[in-house]
From TrEMBL:
Keyword Signal: yes
Annotated SUPFAM superfamilies: FAD/NAD(P)-binding domain
Highest taxon of the lineage: Eukaryota
Lineage: Eukaryota, Fungi, Dikarya, Ascomycota, Pezizomycotina
The protein, known as: Flavin-containing superfamily amine oxidase-like protein
Keywords: Signal
Signal sequence segment: 1-18
Pfam family, one: NAD_binding_8
Length: 470
């Protein structure tokens, strides 16, 4: 049930040129909004993460009027840089790196944020392999022939290069793409690649049980090629959030932070949105809307979903992905504790649990990434992180102490997936068929991959369609 305040929903369509058209429904009272509270734009973008921010900047640069809505007090989504209040030192708790591509470089140049290459290696850090179910050190961690495994992975991937651009699947969907990833690894002798693939597939839920399609989407060809070439890009100043701060300043009053969409009406010629902002209720009238938020039904309560949209979005489920920065762990600053299964294939760790507890780069502070197959309450995650640290002590692995949380953030819902029968049945064909209907466009990870560089390219392609309709 949508809650519609009495004042809501103008059926009158005010164009970007601010022409007031006649009202078409008597229950709407345009007089309830003062002119200063009516925002007319070509495009309204909902969600100020990687895709939404990219779209807003590009559309504005292409001469379109935009407004970008973000419910958090800052842009960036999964990009979250932690700054130590004591000394200003920074560490990335979310997104780390982008691919070496013209599109990426152009976007950073546009926003005046310099890039540099990263190898992901922090020097002087030793890995302690531990099974976090017990806290015990794992003696024989799986290691295979990485170059052989990755070569085989790339060879297989060449069959599906269309996955690089989206979920533009071929039908019938190749049976290999629907295998549990563990079976696919066996079938194509990818074992040696598992330790590498695993790291880049963080957040995917149960790695070996996940449908191969989603593993390939998350660890796409560009990932392996950039890894092998050592060409991954990160910010020169080690402050990835600077990209989004710069975007916010370029967008200026066209970005509404800490704003919540209350209702959307797409029944008319233009889309009408009711927004709660820090400066009160606003009415947005847009020719097109672009949604770049996870399209789960419970996350779209504000939208006038139709039966088709509801039926499609209702099939998504998500994994859980959480991050924290801990102090007072008792772990030495040169030790990374990484989770491995003592008795699992390829030593893949058992979830839910931490992927690792590692030095953050800020002395005394440790970075944790924690994952689960399905979403979990934050309090349960936090308690399990503390318990993981303390298990190291009771198992005699490290003399740990009870840690404090200096930062915690949930990245859940992460990695939206649908069951294999839905994939076979044309789910993604039907999903993509929604683009442009009811003046509504869609982007974001569910439409392509949890991958900023790829999402920017996907969004860039969509801009043509959005602009064509203006
Ligand atoms: C720990 C971690 C590390 C990662 N590392 C990398 C990496 O190194 N490289 C890489 O390319 N990718 C990385 N990713 C993947 C990352 O998810 C994607 O690159 C990208 O951020 C996804 O972009 P998006 O636009 O789909 O979503 P997001 O960036 O999540 O943006 C969605 C935005 O919408 C907002 N929102 C949600 N609901 C609403 C609502 N109702 N109203 C208004 N706003 C709303 C959210 O607050 C958020 O800001 C990482 C992810 C995580 C969690
Ligand atoms: C890894 O596999 C490649 C190709 O099969 C082979 O040439 C190489 O010798 C192997 N490396 C090791 C360390 O076994
Ligand atoms: C999907 O692939 C077909 C055939 O290769 C192509 O014509 C179409 O443009 C692609 N669609 C998208 C959304 O990439
Ligand atoms: C923990 O501390 C005790 C007492 O100082 C010491 O004997 C032991 O070796 C330490 N254990 C580890 C794993 O560091
Ligand atoms: C750890 O951080 C917590 C939360 O910020 C703080 O209350 C606590 O004093 C810190 N402990 C240490 C030992 O620094």
């Amino acid at each position: 049930m949508r809650i519609l305040p009495s004042i809501v929903l103008l059926w009158a369509c005010i164009s970007a040129a601010a022409t007031v058209l006649p009202e078409r429904d008597s229950k709407i009272n345009i007089a309830d909004f003062q002119p200063k509270d009516i925002i007319s734009r070509d495009v309204c973008i909902i969600g100020g993460g990687a895709s939404g921010t990219y779209a807003a900047i590009r559309l504005q640069d292409l001469g379109k009027s935009v407004v970008l809505l973000e419910r958090k007090p800052k842009l960036g989504g999964h990009t979250e840089t932690y700054t130590d209040p004591a000394n200003g030192a920074m560490t990335e708790t979310g997104l780390v790196a982008w691919y070496d591509s013209d599109l990426v470089k152009n976007f950073f140049e546009r926003l005046n944020v310099p890039l540099t290459t990263t190898s992901f290696v922090s020097s002087g850090v030793t890995t302690l392999p531990v099974d976090f179910r017990t806290g015990k050190v794992v003696a024989n961690v799986f290691s295979g022939n990485a170059s052989e495994g990755l070569t085989n992975y790339v060879t297989q991937y060449q069959k599906y290069t269309y996955l690089e651009d989206g979920f533009n699947l071929t039908y019938p969907v190749p049976a290999d793409l629907l295998l549990p990833f563990g079976d696919y690894i066996k079938k194509y002798n990818l074992a040696g690649a598992v330790p590498t693939l695993y790291i880049f597939a963080n957040g995917i839920g149960e790695f070996l049980k996940q449908t191969t399609l989603y593993a390939l989407k998350l660890v796409n060809l560009a990932t392996v090629l950039n890894l092998e070439a050592g060409s991954f890009q990160t910010t020169l100043r080690h402050d990835n959030s600077a990209l989004y701060e710069s975007a916010a300043s370029v967008l200026s009053s066209n970005v509404l932070l800490s704003s919540n969409v209350i209702a959307v009406d797409r029944s008319g010629e233009c889309v009408k949105l009711l927004i709660a902002t820090s400066e009160g209720l606003k009415c947005i009238i847009a020719k097109k809307i672009l949604l770049s938020i996870p399209p789960l039904v419970e996350n779209l309560g504000f939208l006038d979903l139709d039966a088709t949209e509801k039926a499609l979005f209702g099939q998504f489920s998500s994994a859980g992905y959480y991050v924290a920065i801990l102090n007072n762990t008792g772990i030495p600053d040169n030790i990374e504790v990484r989770n491995f299964g003592a008795d699992t294939p390829y030593s893949v760790p058992v979830l839910p649990g931490p992927y690792f507890i590692q030095p953050s780069g800020i002395p005394g502070l440790f970075s944790v990434k924690y994952a689960s197959q399905t979403p979990m309450p934050d309090e349960v995650v936090k308690a399990d992180i503390v318990s993981a640290v303390l298990k190291l002590r009771s198992a005699g692995s490290l003399n740990t102490t009870t840690p404090g949380f200096v930062f915690y953030s949930t990245h859940t819902p992460f990695e939206l997936t649908v069951p294999i029968d839905a994939i076979e049945g044309g789910f993604y064909r039907n999903l993509y068929a929604l683009q442009g209907l009811k003046n509504t466009f869609w982007t974001g990870a569910a439409w392509h991959a949890q991958d900023s560089s790829k999402l920017w390219a996907f969004t860039e392609k969509l801009l043509g369609e959005i602009i064509a309709g203006l």
